[in-house]
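Researcher: Re-running this chain for the archive, since the previous output was lost when a drive failed. Same request as before.
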Amino acid sequence: MITDNSKSQSNARTARQMLRAHRYGTLSTLSKKFDGHPFGSIAPYMVDHDGSLLILISGLAEHTKNILNDSRVSLITHDQNDPHIQTQGRVTLVGNASFDPERDRCGKRYLRYFPEAQTYFDMADFNFFRIVPFAIRHIGGFGDIHWVKADNYRVPIYPLIAGESELLAEFDSDQRKALARSLGIVNAQEVVMVGVDCDGFDLCVDDRIYRSNFTEVLLNAVQARAAILAQVSSN
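Model: Regenerated structure tokens:
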């Protein structure tokens, strides 16, 4: 039984934001070869609009064989730039992984975040699996520890999802560079906006992705555009 506290929505959003801010984590599956023993592997992942995770994995990989045998998985991520492992924030997502048949739709968004994965995407052996959470363990720091229900964490379908691609194309080079400056990045050479979701947006600046969070959950393109333009005008 997972019991959220009175700040459940806030904790859920903080956990989503932390997962969205990172690009990889440790994926734990149940070993088919070794009779259910935990098997850990490093896995790049992308958080989709609703909070579920997408991973692109090979049919030959041990973790793929494990998932096909038993869908129960977990993935933990943390601030990979912070050396203080025990006191920093981290999130463990517990859920079930399954094959996602919508390869082209998944690939369109995934490859904006991981363009280097194009070679793998072009191989028939690699496919997308979606991890749907049923519980999240969020640790914000020492003593700041919470279980989060999936119902509070996941976001139902919202209008911004359909308008994301059009919104990404709206901002010119000067606006994108102003957004980079708002994140403390000066003299950026190439800035690309790779994703916008209800919690914020992602910029790829000179081949490194940076996250900027909205101050509140925004569910449509009009709201998201206004928030992004406000950040542009402040720089």
